Amino acid sequence: MNYKNKKNTLAFALILGTFSALGPFTVDMYLASLPQLAVFFGTSAAAVQASLTTSLLGLGLGQLIMGPLSDIYGRRPPLLLSMILYILSSIGCAMAPDIQWFIALRFIQGIAASAGLVISRAIVRDRFSGVEMTKFISLLTMISNVAPLISPTAGSAVMSYSSWVGVFIFLGGLGIALTGITVWGMRESLSVQQRVPSSPRTLMKNYNSLFRKRTFMGYALVNGILFAGVFAYVAGTPFIYQNIYGVSPQLFSILFASNGLAIIIGAQFVKVLAGRVTESRLFLLGLFMAFISSAAILIIVLVHGTLLAMFISIFLFASSIGIIGPISFTLAMESQGHTAGSASAVLGTMQFALGAVASPLVGMAGENSALPFGIIIFSTSVFSVITYVVLIKGGTINSGVKNRYDSNT
Question: Where is each Major facilitator superfamily (MFS) profile domain found (predicted)?
Answer without folding.
Answer: 9-399
